[in-house]
Design brief:
Length: about 120
């Protein structure tokens, strides 16, 4: 008779789903790029090096659906669309600042450790 092990944190799947969404590289870069201002799609695309238009569109849509971004459409021809962080988005950005600081403080040592592993296992 086997029993399913009890997970110490019953909401792990839900937390994991949210962390996967907010932890991808485009989300983090977008949050830092937009800061506390409103930006248009083109401005964001220029501010985030390497992101394709498609990935930026997907990321913006996901963050809007999660209530992290506010999308405002102005009735002009052509329509003008601006994005800004919601209160939830600003609180997320604040939570990410210490993680970004940690990453920068540990970047050199992490790169050295990775290099040691590559040298030990070249294949």
């Amino acid at each position: 008779m086997t029993t399913e092990p009890q997970h110490p944190f019953p909401n792990c799947r839900r937390v994991g789903d949210i962390l996967a969404r907010i932890g991808d590289k485009w989300t983090i870069l977008l949050l830092m790029a937009i800061g506390d201002r409103r930006m248009r799609f083109g401005e964001l695309h220029r501010a985030i090096t390497g992101v394709s238009q498609r990935m930026l569109t997907v990321t913006l849509r996901n963050l809007e659906h999660d209530g992290i971004l506010i999308r405002t459409v102005y009735p002009t021809i052509p329509p003008r669309v601006e994005y800004e962080l919601s209160d939830r988005g600003r609180s997320l950005k604040l939570a990410l600042v210490p993680i970004a600081k940690w990453a920068l403080e540990n970047q050199a040592e992490i790169e050295e450790a990775r290099q040691r592993v590559r040298e030990q296992d070249p294949g």
